[in-house]
Here is the input.
Amino acid sequence: MRCSVYIATSLDGFIARSDGGIDWLERVQVAGEDYGYAAFMSSVDTLVIGRNTYDLARTFDTWPYTGKRVVVLTHRPLTPVHGEEVWSGPPSEIVARLGAAKCKHAYIDGGATIQAFLAADAITDLTLSLVPVLLGEGVRLFGKTGHDVALRLRESKSFPSGLVQLHYGVHKIE
Here is the structure.
């Protein structure tokens, strides 16, 4: 099963403000430009998201994951609203469970969730959209992995908005 990260980050490595705000993403919003997100989402059958990301998505005007299997990683009580599943185990177990259920491509989202999946060597590829802003503080995209994570650049693109998108494959270090 393929596990992908597709996320925007400030140049200094933050995916949200300290309060969880993502208003800074507006500076690269351009009518008709989704930076490949729709194509990526059409390749995904499952989302594995952290609780904070889930709580943020629930504030949107429309549920952004309609038609996708959504697994929320949390230790806190949660009442599903859109058929979400709740999981509190390690990444290796959720990947095995989803693979056994014939899931083919999971979108891994949320800072702590991405960090846990990287530490468990469960990510196969990352698409990072670098937004030309320095936030100075906030929710970090990357944290301690306990080991090196080798990346190979597959593609890079720059956009008129100043956003630069990097697509990496993750390779195990032997």
